[in-house]
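pinned: reference chain
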Amino acid sequence: MVEQTAITQLAAAMSDQPAPIYQRVKQAIISQINEGVWKANQRVPSESELVNKLGVSRMTINRALRELTSEGYLIRMQGVGTFVAENKGYTAMLEVHNIAEEIAQRGHTHSSKILSIGEIKADPEQAAVLGLATGAAIFHSLIVHYENELPVQLEDRLVNPLMAPDYLRQDYASQTPYTYLMRVAPLTAGEHIVEAVAADARQRKYLALEEYEPCLLIRRQTWSDSKIVTYAKLLYPGSRYKLLGRFKGHG
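pinned: its structure tokens
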């Protein structure tokens, strides 16, 4: 009964604008999801049901569902069915962006809490990632970022004082470290390492995580004019965030 109602709703949402039929099916499904008519984890009618009720070919329905799955709107489970995906926030995997801007683009509110910030002496590992000598003075900050008051990122950042001498004097309640660093040492190169990790007890507390909830960790090193500016470990709850990467292929 629920799936029949879903098909009726979808048929009513179908646009009569001139466009390929699979695109019209896709847009109708996306509108149902965005407007909350089709809820997260709700089962989507089968290909056969959609073919019969919408009066379009199986190839058309298959293409629409396949593309919606690759774009993150649907989840297809072999032998079980197709379901509406949960609407997670995302961060760019292949680019460097301001998390505050990413959250604002989704129409949500960003806020942050500084857990610690100050000058420390670099241990051998910290010195290596910043290209400095062991024992050199470096800046360190630990900040939690929130989306609509829900913690979504723990930012553990090391900064080269030679590249950003006023880092500790900034007001990070009104701007993110990204904003200041891009102003004083514009990014010319960067490197990402992405891992699936388990959070420790301290990290779970800051991100309000259950004990066994998986996390995504981005280790990000950035340069400006061939000099290392910062090294950051960005920890995301796996249940609240996803990584998005776009690239151009050849051939």
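why pinned: The chain has two domains: 2-84, 89-244. The longest helix spans residues 21-34.
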